[in-house]
TrEMBL record:
Gene3D superfamilies: Leucine-rich Repeat Variant (1.25.10.10), PFU (PLAA family ubiquitin binding), C-terminal domain (3.10.20.870), YVTN repeat-like/Quinoprotein amine dehydrogenase (2.130.10.10). It is found in: Cytoplasm. It comes from Rubroshorea leprosula. Keywords: Cytoplasm, Repeat, WD repeat. It comes from the Eukaryota. The lineage of its organism: Eukaryota, Viridiplantae, Streptophyta, Embryophyta, Tracheophyta. One of its GO terms (cellular component) is nucleus. One of its GO terms (biological process) is ubiquitin recycling. CDD domains: WD40. Pfam families: PFU, PUL, WD40. One of its GO terms (molecular function) is ubiquitin binding. This is Phospholipase A-2-activating protein. Coiled coil: none annotated.
Amino acid sequence: MEIEFKEYQLRCQLRGHEDDVRGICVCGGESIATSSRDRTVRFWTLDPSDKRKFLSSKILLGHSSFVGPLAWISPNEEFPEGGIVSGGMDTMVLVWDLRTGEKVQTLKGHQIQVTGLLLDNKDIVSSSVDCTLRRWRNGQTVESWEAHKAAIQAVVKLPSGELVSGSSDTTLKLWKGSTCIHTFVGHTDTVRGLAVMPELGILSASHDGSIRLWAISGELLMEMVGHTSIVYSVDSHVSGLVVSGSEDRFAKIWKDGVCVQSIEHPGCIWDIKFLENGDIVTACSDGVVRIWTTNLTSIADPVELEAYGSVLSQYKLSRKRVGGLKLEELPGLEALRIPVFDVDIGDGEPIRKLPYNRSDNPYDAADKWLLRENLPLAYRQQIVEFILQNTGQKDFSLDPSFRDPYTGSSAYTPGEPSYNSANSAKPLFKHIPKKGMLIFDAAQFDKMLKKIIELNSALLSDPDKKNLSLTELEISRLGVIIKILNDTSHYHSSSFADVDIALLLKLLKSWPLAMIFPVIDILRMIILHPDGASKLLKHVENENDVLVEMVKRVTTDPALPPNLLTSIRAITNLFKNSPYQNWLQKHRSDIIDAFSNCVSSPNKNLQLSYSTLLLNYAVLLIEKKDEEGQSHVLSAALQFAEEENAEVDSKYRALVAIGSLMLEGLVKQLALDFEVDSIAKAAKVSKEAKIAEVGADIQLLTKQS
């Protein structure tokens, strides 16, 4: 007997996250876990005083960047109250014990953002933008394989035990172990979300705006079309209902392939899940988790319902008012008897005229008007939509020969694949691409030597460490080294004795960890000296690579800020010497990972040094056409751009690295998969001019096909 559909209404709103809610995990019957761009995971349980509502009972802190996919570990001997697995943009998979709220495992192995998680018996399976699937057992990788040639966006487990992955290559793949049994082809853009449809097959949500239901054999059973933008998530319920969440701000409920209800939100819906009782949970970009119900006894009280309606109204009004441009006050259809619109910019500005003839290309008309009136090109799409709406051109089709006069590319057309690149003319950008390498060449040589002598005196006075101290002859040799480095006008002709380099390296290895930072600082300047760099290279190319050992030593806990600062700057200076570039490329993964915690350091100098390292790597790996390396640097730079407390110059350099990699590198689609547009938008409203300008550069790149 067919079940009558009942309309969903708001049950409650879960507030606590400070930024976009990115993921939802249903934990048994009466608990929920959510993840956020604010770097936290929150665990919610039923409010004992009001069963309609949920309370945040635990906040899990451990990720260094935004958190995405989640998985639930049912209570067992190891986790009596259950556990949570979380994956983040920081490349980590973390395992949490809900009894204590503590992190019990850190799984390191993915090179880029973790996008999907599931439990397979006691194993954890994860997917990543690095194109791999990984199987973890007891905290260790037991299996890893490249599952797609583009970013993997989701992975689910079928009741029969097989895995299904979805990718930016537009396909789904069915896996038995690490063997691909079938590839599902049909979507025209990134496959972003997956869910199992009980007894029928697999559901997929795509950037092409559709949801598809596939039989395990690969046959397309059903296509659900109704969203007007990217569909990020899909889920199903035993009742046969399907729910989807989209960038178009709507949660849509589907019954037998037909949309039976659309629930509007004040922002993008990143994730959506059914509770066991059929209620729906949505994760929104406004930072609020909402639960929707058909149970009349569970619906929110009238005050909360009215408040939510008000939030929606205010949000829609804000979208109609961008800056001072009052689009809602532009003339209606009756004004189209004349070919000019009056536009009120506000702020005491005079009325401006927007000329438009029915025969004009609306994109061309909007662009010319914005340029003439010196208004931001960001208003372009809203002006075009206004023109189309008020001239009745709902079925407007863009002339394929049209080219944006500012970007050289065709205008954006909804539904077109985001992974295709057009051979368009390069626009002029203000800050990208970055050319050449940045170095740290400022030095206070006298202070370096003075500090070493001071530390040496401390060793001499310590009976247990006296044997590590320098002789007078060795201190004299250090003085000679400093003198050569200080005489920059003779860099082309001066040289070092082999014993000078050997002395520095001996101190680097033997002196206590807390004392080596001035030695590394001298090494930083040796690297910029032609003969010094050449002599050091011999110690880098042998089996006992002194630079690799230095990085390992200074980044081992406890990592001391003076050591981190001088060593990052020393490694950064290597980019200036072409003989070291192969070494830098070879050790890229270890170097970036070793210093990655500098992103969130309160030390502004450390932040700047690390962001400079990333920018130099971006320039080098673009030149080397190293796609894997570019992906790694992009991920690290995006993490920097997400850092709220990043120092201005640091964030600027990270953004320049992102823009350069998108423009001249091989990872533009990857950046789009990372929602780089949201980072660009945030940068554009910065009070710092150069941050806002490079944000505009990146946003312009995202709009190019």
